[in-house]
């Protein structure tokens, strides 16, 4: 699918942001508001569109910057690319530089949480391109061995079943939205219009075909656990975890385990919400972000 095939709602989303060039690749950035910068990093396999309800509530006070990670949403999805979390972190640094952000708060979800921890590791090394003012992590399986991965993720994680996962990705179709709703407690948050936009964003530049390559981030979480969880342990800037207790993937034990790893962090649990808490209850999520940033 290309831009000429978009429905009107997806066209409106495209028009609400812009593309910037990062190392020869186009990155889509949705930016609204003015004030202190807040970088919002989305998860797998969705896009910055997830943050729309949070941004609606933050833009009056903050400069909200929500990029589509490489291979997602309206950013380019090249076939000859490894989609490492390190490359994603490089892209976020380049976006921050391109938008003249020298300091900002970071909020992340799902896969974006590991991009976030790599940025913190670079900050501790004194080589990050901007200052991190605070960090908020929403549900993400940073402790991969504690998380409960989905059956589809299991197929992608095993070399023997990877061809089956590739075949499923080729024909993901309507199963995409149903798969997202299956890990929510409030699936009604995705109405007909939202489902249309999210499906078209996945199909843009054959994004469904990139899912198996992107899924290697789960292996990276094992390989670089000490670097990334170590960054959480050693951070001196304000840090918080906001965890939905009904998430069947990045389950509540992941959140509680992270609190034990980083006891200096603030920890909050939201009841009755699932994996996509930022869409299921953007009001509650925004309240925790705003209060934390204001106190940072």
Structural account:
Strand 1 and strand 2 (25-32) form a beta hairpin. The chain contains 14 helices and 8 strands. Helix 2 packs across helix 14 (282-295) and helix 4 crosses helix 11. It has one domain: Rossmann fold (3-Layer(aba) Sandwich). The chain starts with 7 loop residues before the first helix and ends with a helix. An 8-stranded mixed β-sheet has the order 1-2-4-3-5-6-7-8, sandwiched between helices. With 296 residues, it is α/β, with parallel strands linked by helices. Helices cover 43% and strands 16% of the residues. It is globular, with a radius of gyration of 18 Å. It has helices at 8-15, 52-58, 85-98, 111-124, 151-157, 162-170, 175-181, 192-203, 211-214, 217-223, 225-234, 252-261, 277-280, 282-295, and strands at 18-22, 25-32, 37-41, 63-67, 103-108, 131-137, 239-244, 266-270.
Average pLDDT, all residues: 95
CATH fold annotation = Rossmann fold
Put simply, the count of helices is 14
Reported for the largest beta sheet, the result is: 8 strands, mixed
Gap from first CA to last CA: 43 Å
CATH level 1 class label: Alpha Beta
Count the strands?
Answer: 8
Report the β-strand fraction as a percent range.
15-25%
Order of helices and strands: HEEEHEHEHEHHHHHHHEHEHH
